[in-house]
Structures are given as C-alpha cells and as structure tokens.
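Replying to the earlier thread about multi-chain prediction with a worked example.

Input:
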Amino acid sequence: MIYIKNKTEIDKMRKAGAFAAKLLNYLAPYVKVGASTLELNDIAEDFTKKNGHRSAPLGYKGFPKSICSSINQVVCHGIPKLEDVLKEGDIINLDVSPIVDGYIGDTSRTFLVGETDPLVKKLVDDTEKSMWIGIEQVKPGNRVDEIGNAIDDFLTPKGYGIVRDLMGHGVGRNFHEEPQIPHFRMNRKLAKMEAGMIFTVEPMVNLGTWEVLFDKQDKWTVRTKDGKWSAQFEHTILVTDKGYEILTQEN
Ligand code: MF3
Ligand code: CO
Ligand code: CO
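Result:
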C-alpha cells in the first residue's frame, strides 16, 4: 500500500527533510584526508542528538551505526569504522536518515576527497545529474518506472552500470515503504504518482558492471562485483499537484 500523506504529515516530512539536509551540510567540512568514517558517524550522531532527534539507521534491522559511509567500490550501506580512514583521491557517500518527531528524512551525497581521477569525478557528476533527471519525471499522472527510464537513458549510453538490487523507496514514519523506485529501465508499468506521495530517488551508479555483492560477514556492506568504483546521490521528494518538492533541502 502506498501512503498518501496529509497536510500535517507533509509538514512533518518537511521538517525531517530540512534537518537531514542540515545534518549532511554540517558533515561536509569534516570529510577530508585523515578522517575516519567512525569520526564522521559520531559527529552526525552528536549533532542529531543535540538537536533532540534520533538516527533511523541505528538498530534498523540490526544496523550498528547512525549513518552509512560508503567508500570507492562500496556501493551503499557501508558501516562506519575506526580503520576506514579517508585518503587523497577517495570518494565517499554519506547517507543520513534522521527521525524528527516520528518522521524520517533520507538524503545522501558523494564527496570527493582531495584531488580525484577525472574519470571518477565524471562518474560522481553524472550520478548527481542522473538523480536530477529522475526527479524531473516526478509529477502526478507519471508512473514511477518513468523515473528509472529517464535515468537509464542518460547513463547507459555513457557505459555506466546502474545498480538494480537496491532502489529508491517510499519514506515517512517508516524508513522503507512502498513504492520501490527503480533507477534503471524495467520495461514494466509500475504505480502512478499522486500528490501526497513521498519517496526517495537515489541512483547508485558504477564505473563497471551493475552487479553487486553483499558482504557475507557483516551482512550490510554492498560492493561492486568487479571492484570498480560507485557513486550515489539521494533526495526525499514530495509529489505535489504541479510536480515535485525536494524535502531534503535546508530552508
Ligand atoms: N539510507 C539508506 C537508504 O537510502 C538505508 C540505509 S539502511 C541502514 O535507503 F540500515 F543501512 F541504515
Ligand atoms: Co533511501
Ligand atoms: Co539513504
């Protein structure tokens, strides 16, 4: 069942989204050579708590930390660790999902650490562009699979692999609810968008194959199958009468 949010719920999602954006912006200056992903996690957790909020990932289906931190060939759901220290040329996706008054804002960005390989920088730029191309499809009457079609039409001719095993998702009181949002061409007609739906658009884009592997030990870390690098961007989007509103931005 796809929840259609009412005015009160939409206002709460605006607040949650704004705080998620604020948190990600707050983290940005700490992303630099020598920082560990555990430090970034702790900075995020402290900032969230100080503002009276909680982190949705912490304890979610057993996830052990407050944010996801995914470096280079890690596609998503990387677990922050003391040993994972950023080096010149790395890329890192930080994915934050605070709970504000019961509602969750979900947003992520891939950061460049110092000077990166031009091909990698292009991957990151194209991934962000593809997210915006997907978001532009959001309006009542369009179907959610059209988001994936648009993203696919932009990325596939450039030779990238688009992750298929993980998708965007409805979000609200629940971290993950219907509908699923594909970032690739599914060749299937999925749900029609309606005003009041809230979901994420969060393409995961690889320099090589679209195929991924789930870590057997920690059960969370998702890596590219071929070890090539991967980027991701994510916003939480409200379907409005005319089109869309980005909820995960500061106001
Ligand atoms: N924030 C992720 C998403 O975009 C979900 C992370 S689940 C976690 O859907 F448990 F790993 F945090
Ligand atoms: Co998400
Ligand atoms: Co997320």
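The CA atoms of residues 186 and 219 lie 27 Å apart.

Feel free to reuse this layout for your own posts.
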